[in-house]
Specification:
Number of strands: 14
Number of helices: 17
Strand order of the largest sheet: 3-2-1-4-5-6-7-8
Largest sheet: 8 strands, mixed
Strand content: 5-15%
Radius of gyration: 24 Å
Bound molecules: uridine-5'-diphosphate-glucuronic acid
Shape: globular
Structural class: alpha/beta
């Protein structure tokens, strides 16, 4: 089938490229000329595992092409997938003007049967507004809500192996067209759940908020483990083995970040409050996550004997998680700013995140060329992101380069026994050796 993706950012690009892999004829449209030029040269504009392979396989063939701006070449599209950004406004609500612009700009060039599929995360009620907007402008095209559940770092895998596909619609004809597009996946037994528009939109917010809730909860339990003398890794495993709970998203750490969880939970809180409904749980999750970096700094201070002024820190990892070059809402940003308030020296390294890091630290952050290099002379090494490369460091060799063999593993990804044997003094989140500090 013929599909156009409007917006070749994270969601649009991955989904567009992978739709061509499913056998469709895809056009990825963006108004950013630089982006489109790069894609035409088969250069990926985002860092994402396996994406370059698929881009090279289908890019500039009949199956996948890139265009800058709207034109009649999209006329024959069976569906227009809208995948533009919905940034957060100051009040926590989502800014929808890019979506409305994208719909109105593209509808002028498509045929009357073309279905508008809203992939961007939008507050419940938005698809209805889009449907009304189309009607007001004299177009009868139908709207389907199809939220995305791709994770950065494993988006290609997630696209091909979704837990479910959500399709919200008020039109059976439109629904049938979109189901045909997803047929290669539903043939492989991927479940398609059909709902009305507003429920589909809400499923996305509730999914992200619930996962954020799980993380905030397990982080609180990690703090309890430190006081009570239990082990958070074993605890998560033991709890997660209960199928009703599930083992995913039970890893304790420095708090959730990224471009989705923090934004979506705030948008859901805004929506809830606006409707005069209670948001007690959402409020707590937001508060707990916001408090996390400050609490972690207290833990670090206590671990290092409360004297950190003048000390040298090596920070390994800047991105909000491994597998991405994205620093948006990375908890590491606040951790570094809070450390700086204590007059410490920081050198940092991230395998993918350094190119984008300057703007988050006013060009103040000193980055090195390797994990090993930034650790030389350090009083403490902080593992802030769980990159596999940090697990594979030669810690025996590294110890000889450190001023003091202190390791603070905020992701519980290193081998504690090995490090202890080598003579390191270690701090792990939610484990017996941790020096607990109560949150205020
Ligand atoms: C998230 C959702 O997982 C996707 O389903 C959704 O499509 C996407 O948002 C979106 O709305 O676009 P993403 O932000 O890429 O995906 O990253 P996650 O893997 O979900 O991680 C989010 C944050 O939670 C990261 O900071 C991560 O370190 C943290 N996390 C995750 C934990 O602290 N513990 C865990 O057990 C899991």
């Amino acid at each position: 089938m013929k599909i156009t993706f409007v917006g070749s950012g994270y969601v649009g690009l991955v989904s567009g490229i992978m739709m061509s892999h499913l056998g469709h004829f895809v056009t990825c449209l963006d108004i950013d000329k630089d982006k489109i030029d790069k894609l035409k040269n088969l250069e990926p504009t985002i860092f994402e595992d396996s994406l370059e392979y698929y881009l090279n396989q289908y890019g500039n063939t009949k199956r996948l092409n890139f265009i800058c701006g709207y034109n009649e070449s999209i006329y024959e599209s069976d569906a227009i997938f809208i995948a533009v950004g919905t940034p957060q406004k100051d009040d926590g609500n989502a800014d929808l003007h890019y979506i409305f612009e994208a719909v109105i700009s593209s509808v002028k060039y498509v045929n009357p049967n073309c279905v508008f599929v809203i992939k961007s995360t939008v507050p419940p009620g938005t698809c209805k507004k889009i449907q009304e907007l189309l009607l007001q402008n004299g177009f009868n095209n139908q709207v389907v809500s199809n939220p995305e559940f791709l994770r950065e770092g494993s988006a290609v895998h997630d696209f091909l192996n979704p837990d479910r596909i959500i399709l919200g619609s008020e039109s059976n004809t439109a629904l049938e067209i979109i189901k045909k597009i997803y047929k290669p996946l539903s043939d492989k037994r991927v479940l398609i759940l059909e709902t009305d528009l507003i429920t589909a939109e809400l499923i996305k917010y509730v999914s992200n908020s619930f996962l954020a809730c799980k993380i905030a909860f397990i982080n609180e339990m990690a703090d309890l483990c430190e006081v009570i003398g239990a082990d958070i890794n074993k605890l998560s495993n033991g709890v997660g083995l209960d199928k009703r709970i599930g083992s995913d998203f039970l890893k304790a750490g420095p708090g959730f970040g990224g471009s989705c969880f923090p934004k979506d939970i705030l948008a859901l809180q805004y929506l809830t409050n606006n409707l005069k409904s209670d948001s007690l749980i959402l409020d707590s999750v937001i508060k707990a996550n916001a408090n996390r970096p400050r609490l972690i700094i207290k833990k670090i201070k206590k671990f290092l004997g409360n004297k950190i002024q003048g000390k040298k820190f090596a920070i390994l990892g800047l991105t909000y998680k491994a597998g991405t070059d994205d620093l948006r809402n990375s908890p590491v940003i606040e951790l570094i700013n809070l450390l700086w308030e204590n007059d410490v020296e920081i050198r940092a390294y991230d395998p993918q995140g350094m190119a984008k890091s300057a703007k988050y630290f006013d060009n103040k952050l000193v980055c090195g060329t390797s994990a090993f290099e930034v650790c030389i002379g350090a009083d403490a090494v902080i593992i802030a992101t769980e990159w596999p490369e940090f697990i594979n460091i030669d810690y025996q060799k590294l110890k000889l380069q450190l001023n003091s063999p202190n390791i603070i593993d905020l992701r519980n990804c290193l081998d504690r026994k090995m490090l202890s044997k080598l003579g390191y003094k270690c701090y792990f989140i939610g484990q017996k050796s941790g020096n607990m500090v109560h949150s205020e």
